[in-house]
Each structure stands twice: as structure tokens, then as C-alpha cells.
Amino acid sequence: MRRSSSRLVLIAVTGALLAACSGPGAPSAAKPDTSQTVITAPVTAADLAENGDTTLRLWLTEDERDVVEKIIPVFQRKYPTVKFEVTYKSFGDLTNTAVNVAAGPNPPDVFQGNQGFQVDGALVKAGLIRPLDDIAKTYGWPNTFKSGTLSQFTWSDDGGKFGQGRLYGIAVDDQSVGLYYNKTKLARLGLRPPTSFQDLERALAVARAHGEVPVMIGANNPAGAQFAFANVLSQFQSAEQTRRWVQGIPGSTFGDPANRQAAETLQKWARLGYFGRGYLGLSNPDAVAKFASGTGLFFMGGNWQSGAIRKAGGASGYGYMLMPRGASGRHFALGSLGFPWHISARTKHVPAAAAFLGFLTDPEAAQQYVAANRFPLTAGANIDSPDPLYSDQLAATRQLIADDGEALYMDWTTSTMPETLRAQTQELMAGKTSPEGFVAAVQENWAQAHGQ
Amino acid sequence: VSPVEVKEATSEPVGRLPGKASASERARRRSRGWSGYWYLGPALVVYALFVLRPLAESVWYSLYAWDGIAPATWVGLANYSTVLGDSALRSSVAHTLVFVVFYSLLPVGIGLLIAGIVARAKVRGLTLFRALLFVPQVLPTVVVAVAWRWIYNEDGPLNRLAQAAGLGGLTRAWLGDFQTALAAVGLIGTWVEYGLCMVLFIAGVQRIPTHLYEAARLDGCGPIREFWVVTLPDLREEIGIALVLTMIFALRNFDIIWNTTSGGPGTATRVPSLFIYQTAFVSREVGVASAASVLLTVLILAVAGTITRLTRVSGG
């Protein structure tokens, strides 16, 4: 028995060695289709009808379901020959499989990735997605969005440089991180929404002295840990600086005084008990649920997380604001547009895909985003919502865009940064590492990837 | 030797020429020996397709620098030196050793204790008792992880219990505390695995002839001595099986850790399987991840082999 099993292993290893003559990764698998149509004028229903029925296959995050299910019927009224096959994946499943699916034998025509080097960078590098400059020009995206905003979808064609080169994706709504507050508690403590860093620190001290948890965070995960650090960083750093660092632009560094000050402050707040207890064991959804049920004066979270508060009946009892303007004199928030939509470099349905992305960025579709409590940058000025929390958030988002304050997300900068940032922030908050050690470890990860 | 063969050997006609007969006999026997493999065929095909082939592919990938998409470059054994030189990975191996205690040694110990009690006393409702204690083995690990996340929560049942017992000072988010996270995750493994050990050992104990216990008692053994001289030696095989199964679980564990702490807080519960996942699927260094999994496989085979050798009952 032993001999026969070792014989099998031998066969297996021999097979592996024989196969080793050619390496894995067939070079032909991911060849972009260079014959793809170039879009020069808005696609009409008649253009699409010429080829009979078209089925567009979509791979999207679960978060898009609300909006997309409403948008598709409206789109189909205009373009009746387009059918859809939509697959929804959780954010984690999508980002961890998007590249392989796009490289597979039968890639979806339109799918979402994630900004940054882990997903979008890899997609561009492997030639799996189509540049959208022609579509952008046709549908006027450079007028709808600021060029700084669009730069989160631009890449050099080798996927090595982020924030320059051709446009490889598009998204519609702002997703940024701010400060939720419990209006009742704020009033009971005799406080008002803070307008400066000093104001904020005073509010936290008062809350602590009255036995409230000053700030709820759920920091057992990369997102929650990063929200806490970046919200503090907004008081010391400019959005521009952080954005350059995220995009790996030479000369930028994490090792500047602003990041060190932010790390010191975050550690101090943790030591003073401003985050309550147990936040390192708390997930972000659990944290917002606790906040919605009455624990904590503030909650640091994304503008997409208000659903949990609304569900708990708190739309009128809770407010939302950006972190106060810090040293840079402008607002700064972790923020970007939503998950980018891409067109496969090998799709046979470029016109239909272009028509759909064009429609997605149309004011008509923006209404569906508003209905789902999201913040489309494609809508006109006259969005109206009876929901006071949504109105707060919309005002904050507009302020952020006006201040050019979207700092992007810090974990985009390298594929291992989500993990490094989570572990380092947790160690910082628990006093296991010094602010200097934190800054050095994060910068080391960055420098390794960006070769500096 | 299978009973069929024994029968055949003894029913051999007397007076046949030994040399000639044994040659044809041997040929016949050999063909019969191989024919047994036809029955293994279907399982072997599945095994080869879904276990051996991926294994061989992992070995192959581990010799390349590959992002999973673009053509790979041959790097020889460089990935292995990367893995062995990674200091973060080495510290995660230390966590695995702690998990071996919680996932393997502790469950085996608890299983033995229960088996010892069962061997000594007649427990009423043993079947029900056994079934209930076995439940953790049957549950999907994600369910187990979610349940324990709740138990360990800042305002979960464990902390409420501590408060009720006047131990409010001990309460914490057990999975989010640098001091307790490793042990807290470890105890989940203990809870999952001890049922398996217990069932194995109780079955083993029931196989031990009762006259051995009677003899031991006549010789004046107390319950503890009886355990050492009768129960433990006779359970050697079962202990071997339990150790192999639980050690493999401990060394390759991913799902419980991923669904409770994801390696945190900081790096307090990071283990090699998390490294493999992150390297393969997040940073897309397929070669390095493959090298790490090959090394982990070799380690698991070595541990399992050693335990099997040590606990083999000689002459059985």
C-alpha cells in the first residue's frame, strides 16, 4: 500500500515536471479584441436593432441590485432589443474573483471591479478591460465629472501608473466617509455639531465624562480601522496629499508629520476611551447597528451605511456631517465614486455596453440612485428627499465635491495594504505599536510596491 | 490477508508439484490482487482528478512567478526561499503550534476523560449524551464561527455570565483583545473537535473486554490506575486516529479563524493558511502561495505519518 501510494506521488510529480516545459498562463487567453467598435456618436435603439437581439452579461456587486433592477426596465423601454443576464456577488467575492473571471474563457460583457492596484490595476495590466475614452467623449463625462474625479479610473496601459493615462472605468455616485451623530444625545449634552478639531475633541471629552461612548467604530476589519484613522488624518492632511500617495505618485510619502500627528491623536483617543470598549472585536455592520440602537454619540462610517440607521427608525434622530475642515482649510474624507463599471476587452457587444453605461450616467438614471439613498454626481441640483438624514448626507457630499476633498481609499495603494493597514491600526489603537512604528510599517509596504 | 485468500491457501490440494503449481498460483493470485483495484476505480478517478491533479499543479505553479493570468516565468525554488524567509509567516507558524494544543491535544484529553468515566460507570442515556456532544462536529464551521462571535461579543452571553458571577472586571471583546484572541479562537476548535474524539474513544472502550477491567479491579486498581493500565493502552489506535484527524484540522484551519478574527487583532491570530489565501487571491502571487501550500502539505503529511507510526499497534 505504501509503495503504491508513493508510486502515485511519483507519477504526479513526473507529470508536473513534464508539464513544466511550458509555464502556466496561456498567453492567448486574454488577448484584447482589437477589432472592437469605436463609439463616435450616442448609440441609438435603431443601431442596436440592426443586429437583432443582444444579451448583455453583467457581473456586479450585491450593493447595485436595488438600483440596477430599477434601471434595466427603463433602459429596455428605450432599447427593446437588449436583454440582460445579471450576476450579483458580495463585494469580497467580486473583488477576489473579478480578474480571473474576466480572464476566463467566457467573460461577462460589463462588470465591476475596484479602484486601485489590487483589481483595476491587474485588469488593465492583463489587458482585460477596454479603454472608455471614446464613450466618455460621446456621452460628455468630462463635463459631468471633474478631471480629478475621473482620474481614479485612469491607468497607464501597463497598469503600472494610477491616476494618468486612459480612462478604464466609470461610476456614478459618491461613496465617502463621514461622521454620523445622535441628535438627541448631542442636545442632552448641550453640544452642537462640531465645526473645528478643538470643538470635536471637546465634544468627545464631554461625552466621555458623561459616560457615553464618544465614537462608535467597528475596527475588526480593514474598512472600519481605516475609517477611524483617516477621519483623524483629515484634521492634519490635505486630500490632495493623500490622493497622490494612494496613486503611488513618486515623491509622496506616508512618513510626513501629518500622518504621524494623526497616528498620535488616534492612539491618544483610544487611550482616553473615546472609542468605548471592544471596538477591535466589532465588525463595521455591528457597530452601525449598535449606534442605530442608541450606543454612542458619533459613528465613523460611510455615507452608504445610513440604511441600518433608517431601518432602526432613526432617520430623524440622527444627523450626518463631514469631519470639520482641518489644517488644510478644506474638507477631507475617504471617498471616491462607487465600484467602477468596466467593459470587457473581448465583448462582442460594445455598442450595447456603451449605450448602457451612457444611460447609467444620464440624469434619468440618477433618480434611481436617489431613490436608493445614494448620491449620484450625475443629477441636477434639484434633488429632493423627504428624508432629513439623506438631505444631510447630500449636502455633505456636495460640500466634499466642491472642496475637491475625496482622498480616495488608502488601501487601494497596494494589494496588501488592506491587511497591513488593518493590523497596524489595531496595534496602534491597542498601544502595541508607536505612532512612529505605525507610520514606518505602512510606508514600508507602500515603498516596496512602488519601488521607492 | 482477506478471508477468501486464507480459505484458498488452506484448501490447496495435497501432493501437487510445489514449484510448478506455485508459479501459476502466484500469477493467478497476482491478477486477482490487481483486479481488486477495479473496484477502487471510480473513487480513484475522482481522487486523481480533484486531489492529485490539483496537488501536482500546485507543485508545478510553485516553481513559477505567476499572477494567475499573464504568462508565468520560471523561478525554480525561489518561491520556497521567499516563503521560508518570511518573518511574518514564521510567527504565524508559532500561532499554529498554539492551535495544535487547542484543536488537538485538548480535545483528545477531554475525550479520554469522558471515555474513562464511561468505561467505569454505567451512564444512563449514553446514546443521547453522545449524540448531543457530537453536534459541534456536524455543524458547518461558518455557523460555528458566527455563533461563537456572538458568544464572545462585548455584550454577548459570556460577558453577561461573567458579570452575573461578579467577574465584571474580566469582561472584554474576547476576539478583539490581543491577550485573549488566540485562546478564544483556539477554544472554538476544542469545542468542535472533542465530540469526535469522545465518540472514537467511547467506541473503543466498549470494545475492551470487560474481564480486563474485572482483573484490574481484583488486583486492587482504583479508577485512575485502571484508566492508565487498561483504558489508555487499549485505546492506542483510536488515540492515533484522533490525533491525526485533529492535528490536520489544526494545521490547515482557515474557516474558523477567517470568520472570527481574520487574523486580528493586529497579527495575533494569523496562521499560514490565511497567508496562503491572501497571497493567492488578494495579492495574486500564485507561485508563492503554491510554495507555501506545498510546504504545509509536506508538514501535515510528516506529522500524520509520525503519529501513525508512533501509535501503531505492533503485530496487530
Keywords:
heterodimer; A: 452 residues; alpha/beta; five-stranded mixed sheet; four-stranded mixed sheet; 20 helices; 46% helix; 11% strand; disordered N terminus; B: 316 residues; mainly alpha; two-stranded antiparallel sheet; 2 strands; 74% helix
Strand line-up across the major sheet of chain B: 1-2
SSE string of chain B: HHEEHHHHHHHHHHHH
Shape of chain A: globular
Mean pLDDT over all positions of chain B:
86
Give a written overview of the molecule.
The complex is a heterodimer of chains A (452) and B (316). Chain A is α/β, with parallel strands linked by helices and 452 residues long. Chain A has 20 helices and eleven strands. Chain A has helices at residues 2-19, 45-49, 65-78, 91-103, 117-125, 133-139, 141-144, 147-150, 183-188, 197-209, 222-233, 239-246, 257-271, 284-292, 306-311, 350-360, 363-371, 388-402, 417-429, 435-450, and strands spanning 54-61, 82-89, 110-112, 154-155, 166-167, 174-182, 215-216, 298-302, 318-321, 335-337, 341-343. In chain A, helix 3 (65-78) links the parallel strand 1 (54-61) and strand 2 (82-89). In chain A, helix 4 (91-103) runs parallel beside helix 5 (117-125), helix 13 packs across helix 20 (435-450) and helix 19 (417-429) runs antiparallel to helix 20. The longest helix of chain A is centred in the first third of the chain and has 18 residues, at 2-19. The radius of gyration of chain A is 24 Å and the shape is globular. The model of chain A is unreliable at 1-21 (pLDDT under 50). In chain B, strands 1-2 form a two-stranded antiparallel ribbon. The longest helix of chain B has 44 residues, at 18-61. Mean pLDDT of chain B is 86; it is low at 1-21. In chain B, a hairpin with a 7-residue loop joins strand 1 and strand 2 (73-74). Chain B has 316 residues and is mainly α. Chain A binds chain B through residues 8, 12-13, 15-17, 19-20, 23-27, 29-30, 96, 99-100, 103, 118, 122, 125-126, 128, 220-221, 277-282, 415-416, 418-419, 422-424, 426-427, 430, 432, and chain B through 52-53, 55-57, 59-61, 63-64, 66-74, 152-154, 172-178, 181, 261-267, 278, 281-284, 286.
